[in-house]
Amino acid sequence: MRFRQLFIAESTQTNLQQSVTILNNLREYDSHAFKIKTMKKLTPIFLVVVCINTTISCKKETIVKETETLKAVASQSISSNSLINTKANFGVLVTALSGDDKITVAKLLGVKYVRQSLILKDFTGELPLTDKYLSNGFKVILNLNYKPIQNYKGERVPKLFPTDMIEYRNTLNKVFDKYTPEIAVIENEPLNDNHYKDTIENYIRELKNAVEVCNQRGIKVADGGAFSAQTCCILVYKDYFSRGMQAEADDFAKRAGMEDRFIKAAKGKGSNQRLLVKIREAEKMVKADAALNLDFVNIHWYEPLSDYNDPRISAFYFEQTFTL
Question: What is the C-alpha to C-alpha distance for residues 265 and 281, in angstroms, rounded to an integer?
């Protein structure tokens, strides 16, 4: 089984120059990529997808001005080799722009990967933006969500995971009959209460079926990103604590800047019952990810990076977990 990690650092930015700065800042984490065991060897893979929400006016002169600004910044901050020759694989999710402008931004940032979402229930056989990305040489990370999280009024409504696995697999196959993404990502943050109102067991069932379909077709697949920086830190602390390594747990908590409420939760204490449930669900996801034939484990760290969500601090737990 090839098993690596998909590291997604997400950021909502309103300035293209800030987006370039984020990519440059993240480059320093190259040497700290996770080493996930791949049968008999360790394979360090580091993939960063920066989510850029660019609020550019529809006026032509404004688009031109922002584009020229990004070109100038790119020429100074992203040399022709700075992103291409790094061990990290950088990608971008650009929103709030038209398809052609998304292509322009991705090119100017010098990334190889682009992230796009697809609502499986709404798939009609064509993905025009994906076609554009592919024709421009980008590798597409396709987020496959069964249902939208917004209703027809634009209101956010947490959804259920699919229950009919025959229908689900058929729908996946219809997508893959037309498109072969670089990575298929199954749902988005399955432990996020703003996205879903279902059990983690139902998500694991969906993921298991999706992994089987992807494996049959030779498509690389990742879970939907159940692990945040907060979750990782809690699990690391709990792992030390459960093994009687209190000194190591305390040292880790200090280095990670963990809040007292998270330390209490890691010990199974505290008044936040929902957080305690989330920890148990995250532990189930760790076991499921380790058992499934996944290519990537999807972990979300959010920009700006700080001591609290520094992947160099909390990567150790997942390296241990998936190399046992």
Answer: 13
